[in-house]
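Try this one yourself first.
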């Protein structure tokens, strides 16, 4: 285990702001977790599990917490197309690994920054697929029970960008995820932009889907290595049919996706229509190619981005009567 004190988070989260972590502890062995929990207790500091920091915004200069990063990166292929990966495995490496081993299902989730551990916290989703569809079980350390637990897929409370881990932030440290994949390709081409990109969808191999997804992402989402960002900053809001109809009367071109009985409206569209797309103030702003991506062009502070997010929430609320909810975890 490696314990670092007052260390910069700039290269440890994808917004790349210069916040300082009070403590940052990297563990390779799962058995070391209990010691880290005790360490945080002894310092009276909250424990924050972090992977690649692809979904965090830190608003204070010094983050008074003990960060714990699980660096175990093993992948084990089991029977029945089960694959177990430890939390530290890079997500996109994992997707590519499964395809190379003729295990299919995760291809639409190619190119998402972050780790295996984070994939279940966030229930990552893209291009018509959510990781929840493939999760069999999760191993984690449960802080309130003070022991390691195995959580079956039915107890994970997965929903749109939500899970038991997100609802009970601070209580679980995910150590590994077991996915149930398929040995025969079953492609999902329900997402319009993906289908349009691919064109003829007959006999399309999952590896081709991966390539298409990587290209689409590359064309509209900034790479955090060049421009700091955390992907979609807000969730896409869901509204009921009556509210949707009232908006449609005012904005006949409003895009939407059906989500059960509700209408999911792209937050990017609401933000763009509120005039924010391409907004820039010094080193922070809203990405020119995608209005849902708040960006750090260089030296902006987490608090600058947080203030911008609040201004966006206010103006979307004023124009559309919808309160956007952050998707990014704000600390
Ligand atoms: N749009 C605009 N302006 C923009 C960008 C998009 O009006 O600047 C509108 C367009 O009508 C477009 C629609 O928004 O058709 C949807 O845009 P996009 O296909 O890019 O998807 P999204 O709803 O903005 C969601 C996820 C992404 C995921 C994509 C693809 C959320 C919060 N975001 O974005 O996930 O990659 O779909 O499936 O659900 C992430 O979670 O970090 C993330 C990037």
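Now uncover the answer:
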């Amino acid at each position: 285990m490696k314990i670092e004190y007052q260390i910069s988070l700039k290269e440890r989260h994808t917004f790349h702001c210069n916040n300082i972590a009070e403590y940052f502890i990297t563990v390779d062995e799962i058995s070391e977790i209990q010691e880290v929990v005790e360490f945080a207790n002894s310092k009276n500091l909250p424990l924050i599990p972090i992977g690649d920091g692809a979904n965090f915004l830190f608003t204070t200069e010094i983050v008074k917490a003990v960060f714990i990063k699980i660096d175990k990166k093993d992948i084990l292929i089991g029977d029945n197309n089960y694959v177990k990966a430890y939390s530290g495995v890079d997500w996109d490496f994992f997707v590519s690994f499964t395809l190379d081993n003729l295990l299919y299902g995760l291809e639409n989730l190619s190119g998402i920054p972050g780790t295996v551990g984070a994939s279940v916290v966030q229930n990552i989703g893209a291009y018509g697929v959510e990781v929840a569809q493939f999760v069999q079980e999760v191993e984690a350390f449960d802080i309130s029970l003070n022991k390691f637990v195995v959580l079956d897929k039915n107890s994970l409370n997965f929903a749109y960008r939500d899970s038991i881990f997100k609802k009970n932030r601070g209580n679980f440290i995910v150590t590994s995820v077991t996915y149930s994949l398929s040995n025969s390709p079953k492609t999902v081409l329900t997402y319009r932009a993906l289908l349009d990109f691919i064109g003829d969808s007959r006999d399309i191999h999952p590896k081709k889907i991966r390539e298409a997804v990587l290209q689409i992402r590359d064309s509209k989402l900034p790479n955090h290595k060049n421009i700091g960002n955390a992907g979609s900053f807000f969730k896409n809001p869901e509204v009921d049919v009556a509210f949707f109809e009232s908006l449609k009367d005012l904005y006949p071109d409003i895009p939407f996706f059906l989500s059960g009985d509700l209408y999911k409206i792209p937050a990017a569209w609401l933000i763009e229509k509120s005039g924010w797309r391409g907004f820039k103030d010094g080193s922070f702003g809203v990405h020119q190619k995608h209005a849902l991506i708040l960006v750090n062009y260089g030296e902006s502070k987490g608090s600058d981005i947080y203030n911008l997010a609040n201004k966006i929430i206010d103006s979307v609320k004023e124009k559309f009567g919808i309160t956007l909810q952050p998707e990014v975890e704000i600390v």
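Discussion: Residues 2-70 form a domain with the Uridine Diphospho-n-acetylenolpyruvylglucosamine Reductase; domain 2 fold (CATH 3.30.43.10). Residues 126-127, 191, 193, 231-232, 235-236, 255, 266, 268-269, 272, 277, 290-292, 327 surround EPU (CB under 6 Å).
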